Amino acid sequence: MLSEMKQLVREKNICVLATIADGKPYCSLMAYAANPEGTEIYMATHRSTKKFRNLSNNPAVSLMIDTRDESPRSLTRALTVEGICTRIEDDSRRQLVRHRLLSVHPHLQEFLDHGGNEMLCVTIRAFLLLKGLTEAHHAELG
What pTM did the predictor assign? Predict the structure, then answer.
């Protein structure tokens, strides 16, 4: 089941990112790219956003990745991802992540060229996969 969870992370490229500040959740629709192992998710955001302020204060995140656009609702797979989000500070790694994001989302070129961006990495800690309405599978990563 873990391989199916990681495959879903690799196959999709849009998620809902949930952050928290002052005990209040905050959700953002995000474009992402994953590493080949399906254990890291890369995103970009402006430093001026509420989500970035939230992440700076609390790096624990939850993401929702789903298949509602490709299957009947009763067969939808919904993957909740728990992880820790950090800024990518190493210049060579930032360039690799930028290239990966642009290979999946070429429309982000102008956004990524704009100053004030941060490259982010969510290191996945756990998955919860719901298949249909009742089948649930949980997995934790080392």
Answer: 0.94
Contact 47, 118 (CB under 8 A): yes
Percentage of the chain lying above the pLDDT 90 cut: 89
Whole-angstrom distance, CA of residue 55 vs CA of residue 103: 25
pLDDT tops 80 at residue 71: no
**Encoding tokens for residue 133?**
């309405």
Mean pLDDT calculated for residue range 86-109:
97
User: How many angstroms separate the first and last alpha carbons of the chain?
Assistant: 15
Measured distance CA(42)–CA(94) in Å, rounded: 10
Please state, as a whole number, how many other Cβ atoms lie within 10 Å of the Cβ of residue 82.
Answer: 17
Q: What's residue 132's pLDDT?
A: 86
Residues contacting residue 13 through CB under 8 Å, at least 6 positions apart = 31, 32, 33, 104, 105
What kind of fold does domain 2-140 have according to CATH?
Pnp Oxidase; Chain A (2.30.110)
Domain map (residue ranges) of the chain: 2-140
